[in-house]
Amino acid sequence: MSLSTHYQWRALQLQAFGMPENNGVASARLFDASLNLLLPAVVLLHLFCSPYTKVEESFNIQATHDILEYGISFSNSTELIATKYDHVDFPGSVPRTFVGAVVLAGLASPFRSLFSSPDQVQLFVRAILGLANAAALWHMRYAVETAYGKAAGRWFILLSASQFHVMYYASRTLPNMFAFILTTVAQRNLIMVKSMASKSRVSVKRRRVALYLLTIAGVVFRSEIAILLAAETAYMLVQRRASLTNEVIPAGLLGVSIGLLATISIDSVFWQSFPTWPEFVGFYYNTILGKSSEWGTSPFHYYFTNALPRLLLNPMVITVCLPLALSSKTIGRTSSDVLIPHLAFIAAYSLLPHKEWRFIIYSIPAFTAVASSAAGWFWTRRGKSMLYWTLNMLMILSTIASFVTSLGLLYISSLNYPGGQAVHRLHQRTIAEANESVRVYMGNLACQTGVTRFQQVRPSWTYDKTENNTKLHDPMFWQQFDYVLSEVPERVIGTWTPVEIVSGYAGVTIKPEEDDDELPMPSGALQILRGPKKLYVSIASFVRSRVTKGYWPVPKMDPKIYILQKQPTAMLSQT
Predict the structure, then answer these.
(1) What are 414-461's pLDDT values in tens digits?
(2) TM spans, by residue (predicted)?
């Protein structure tokens, strides 16, 4: 987009969203302020509605806990790490970086005393990560406004906030979400460059910053970002926007140096082996040795036909906005410059057989930005013809539907953490034993679905998660415990009484049984939403009995984890 076209485009945006320039300035500012709050509000909503973690997040959340709880000692680090840190007993198949955990712990540490229990600290730690990702997206909004106008910037916020996966995982301690901060800020700089004159001093600086960030993210957090970096760099060189010797190579060398210095210096200490570069080890193990295929494979088209539509969520983005943006004479050039490197990245990464949506999440802001340009383009023309008016109505309705869908997915996802619910219910049931010496064994499913060290809130209790099969088959091993959280109680040796069964999500049924809960909720949410739930159940029951003849969509809940207590007689005989 030329400078003259850019300024004409910006002038057209003054009437965006129907706010007259003279008497609507205050309303426009209020609306923009509300939009700025939308992203962090939605991220925090997802965090508090689904506060527990899954196994793929466990390394970073456990590492953050250990750094906060035990610190880093340079005098006796070997002994401290060997005896206190979780990753020593549960190292995983390959080492992973501590860089993200060190940053999170460092940011959270000054505020730790404000919280009364460790599980509150976990929420705070995750909130820091989530708000950092929200800030990166908020920062990108202004690049979208620079490239496409204010209306596009507003649509970027609305579309991003309605995307379930980005909002839900923004606060989750996956390596991808640490990298997402860096890649989004890099994308912000690249959009600014691609929409303005490429030879200016400011553009050169922004390109270098983008290359620094992408390189660091690939070296430290996720190696697949190297493919995105290569695609962006190659496109710059082909378009003659960047100098290989003056920009690309110096930026790449500096980014690699910073990334290697950070990861090797930090991870060599925590893994007690020098030099340790976790992301290279993971790349070699999963890609060169092909071990990632053991987790399943998908066809070449998976990212394009499955992952992208799910991540973008809004059907208008795929079917209308992206095609319109790429074909438009006004915004097509900039939109193509933004999307082509990401399409190349996804196509290249599709050659690997093992695929997961989180491997391409870094591209979602770019697709959303281009889609927002089209949404802003026909929004500013909504009064010119019935076609534009219809497109705008469809866009509004599909965005509302995306928000509703996202909330529905959030509700279902909150039911997927029986481990976190089980340890929470155990603590609620045993308030009288809070200061006693109690031993609890937590089984595999509990540890995979919500139990972390932050949930171990009783200092006088001992929490055990042994995985050694020899010990698990030894009757003497089980005699030491007072409570067990197990998905298969028959395998727990000894005399035990089930005191509670924690259920988890197992699909949706459209014809529930009479005694099925029409709106199952985690125990924490139920305490707050008891009134709204009662109202919903009353309405649902009335519609089921009087209108739909028993049909009504209800989440199906199956028993997942049994809370077992050692029988008093067994405890007495032991004493």
Answers:
(1) 999 999 999 999 999 999 999 999 999 999 999 999 999 999 999 999
(2) 209-231, 251-271, 359-380, 386-412
Helix ranges (DSSP H) in 221-305: 225-238, 249-271, 278-283, 302
Q: Please tell me the distance from the alpha carbon of residue 496 to that of residue 517, in angstroms, as a whole number.
A: 28
Number of CB atoms found within 10 A of residue 491's CB? 12
Rg of the chain over all Cα atoms, to the nearest angstrom: 26
Nearest Cα residue to 416 out of 532, 522, 527: 522
Max intra-chain CA distance, the chain:
88
**What span, in angstroms and rounded, lies between the C-alpha atoms of 86 and 416?**
24
What are the C-alpha distances in Å from 184 to residues 10, 190, 424? Answer: 23, 10, 36
Helix boundaries (H) for 380-504? 386-414, 418-429, 444-448, 469-472, 475-478
Q: DSSP characters for 494-542?
A: S-EEEEEEEEEEEEEESS--TTS-SS---HHHHHHSHHHHHHHHHHHHH
| Contact between 167 and 406 (Cβ < 8 Å) | yes
What is the total residue count of the chain?
575
> In this prediction, what percent of the chain has a pLDDT beyond 90?
81
Alpha helices in 272-385 (DSSP H): 278-283, 302, 308-312, 315-316, 322-327, 332-349, 364-379
Percentage of residues of the chain with pLDDT beyond 70: 94
Structure tokens at 180: 């997402």
Element (DSSP H or E) covering residue 66: helix 58-70
First and final C-alpha spacing in the chain: 81
- Residue tagged 């793929």 (tokens): 56
Q: What are phi and psi of 562, to 5 degrees?
A: -100, 130
Contact 366, 160 (CB under 8 A): no
* Ranges of H-type helices in 115-248: 118-148, 150-161, 164-169, 175-194, 201-220, 225-238
Per-residue pLDDT tens for 373-392?
999 999 999 888 999 999 99
